[in-house]
Automatic annotation (TrEMBL):
It comes from the Bacteria. It is an enzyme of class 4 (lyase). PROSITE patterns: PROKAR_LIPOPROTEIN. GO terms for biological process: cell wall organization; peptidoglycan catabolic process; peptidoglycan turnover. One of its GO terms (molecular function) is hydrolase activity, hydrolyzing O-glycosyl compounds. It comes from Desulfobacter latus. Keywords: Cell wall biogenesis/degradation, Lyase. SUPFAM superfamilies: Barwin-like endoglucanases. This is peptidoglycan lytic exotransglycosylase. Its EC number is 4.2.2.n1. Gene3D superfamilies: Barwin-like endoglucanases, RlpA-like domain.
Length: 415
């Protein structure tokens, strides 16, 4: 018993020294406030601007409002779970969770009257305030897609299933800098570990370091084992998936966490290296290139330092607000900029069928809910559309690169 207490004390002391070292470095760098020196943050441009009535789009839903009510219900689950006073920014305007609930319930109740397109447009113009994303450098929004894949796997390792899908590591912990200074409120938490030799806090291992640790399974329990390394990589990209086991069982894998390292797109790397033409880039093109160049797989995959960990669960897939996302009704955005759970309207392009060339995709407009986020979805000019889990979803998510517009709708105050 005495030895166990001594080991626990030693671990706590190691963690304490590591955290102390981190804080010391921040102080020396001047980030926690040094005398009269203050870091002046440039004013942030509002990602949403209010749209004048004369500039409102035609609110026509390409899919005839199918499954929209179910997606709204999921956002209502979220809003009814948070404090009624929690606030959400729409440009210069702020609405609380209670108002967000009223906004969605009012919209859904009107949908249940089965309105014509003309009546729906009149209803929105009379009842809702509409905001538009300022977009990226070209003032438009880049839309991509993601889906829920299914891959063969096993609960035990073997010659046919050598690639582990890891749970959250035991030695990974989060550092919330806001505990040290109010200046860090709202900042991203750091994912870290304590180096056993130096007793200092270090960033968590990169993808390359994780793959090169033969004993990493002692830090992070494998949830399942996959047949293909490329499958595991794309499972990480999608953030969730299904694993088809030999006995016919389907295991549902959900996002559990990340190592905190920078996400870099391997598709961009292949384009920059002139390995795949930009106009032919897709998830399918990446898979084909990796399959035909196994000797260069480390080179390409290790350019992305980010690594995702998983947990097994039921239902889903779930978005960042922990509600089930709905195919072609849920989007992922930078939730630091846009209101979580909010009702949105997008204008983009979607294929009419599997195999349709990207340049022939017809324009589409849809009501969607902002229910997810992603490591590559940053800034006001990016949206990721959840496409589902079928073959159409696979094709669409793999090829979708379309320009368009993003709007948010909220019930006008005093309505």
């Amino acid at each position: 018993m005495h030895r166990e207490k001594k080991q626990i004390y030693k671990k706590r002391k190691t963690l304490y020294h590591g955290l102390l070292y981190l804080v010391l470095i921040l102080i020396l760098a001047g980030t926690l406030g040094c005398g009269d020196r203050k870091k002046v943050e440039p004013p942030r441009e509002n990602p949403l601007v209010k749209v004048a009535e004369s500039d409102l789009p035609d609110f026509t839903d390409t899919l005839f409002l199918q499954d929209l009510g179910a997606a709204i219900d999921q956002s209502l689950v979220y809003f009814k779970r948070v404090p009624a006073t929690r606030t959400y920014e729409y440009g210069n305007d702020v609405y609380n969770a209670s108002h967000m609930i009223s906004s969605l319930e009012t919209f859904k109740a009107f949908l249940e009257t089965r309105p014509s397109a003309k009546d729906l447009n009149r209803f929105i113009r009379e009842t809702y305030t509409v905001y538009k994303s300022i977009g990226g450098a070209n003032k438009d929004v880049l839309f991509t897609g993601y889906f829920e894949p299914t891959y063969p796997g096993s609960r035990t390792p073997g010659p046919g299933y050598p690639w582990p899908v890891y749970a959250m590591p035991d030695d990974l912990f989060q550092i919330d800098l806001s505990a040290f200074s109010d200046a860090y409120k709202g900042h991203k938490r750091l994912m870290a570990r304590v180096d056993s030799k130096s007793r200092r806090v270090r960033p968590y291992y990169t993808r390359e370091q994780i793959n090169n640790q033969l004993d990493f399974a002692q830090k992070a329990r494998p949830v399942v084992w996959l047949a293909n390394r490329i499958d595991r990589f794309f499972l990480e990209i999608q953030g969730s998936g299904r694993v088809s086991l030999a006995d016919g069982e389907i295991a549902r894998l959900h996002y559990a966490g990340v190592n905190g390292r920078k996400y870099s797109a391997v598709g961009k790397y292949l384009i920059d290296k002139n390995e795949v033409p930009k106009e032919k880039m897709s998830m399918q093109a990446i898979r084909e290139w990796l399959s035909t160049h196994p000797d260069r797989m480390d080179e390409v995959l290790f350019t992305n330092d980010s690594f995702v960990f998983f947990k097994e669960g039921k239902g889903g897939p779930f978005g960042c607000i922990n509600v089930t996302v709905t195919p072609v009704r849920s989007i992922a955005t930078d939730t630091k900029l846009f209101p979580k759970g909010g009702l949105a309207f997008i204008q983009t392009a979607l294929p009419a069928g599997i195999g349709q060339p990207k340049e022939a995709w017809p324009r589409a407009s849809l009501f969607v809910l902002n229910q997810d986020t992603g490591g590559a979805i940053k800034g006001p000019g990016r949206v990721d559309l959840f496409c589902g889990a079928d073959d159409w979803a696979d094709y669409t998510a793999g090829h979708m690169v379309a320009r368009g517009q993003l709007y948010f709708l909220v019930l006008t105050l005093n309505n």
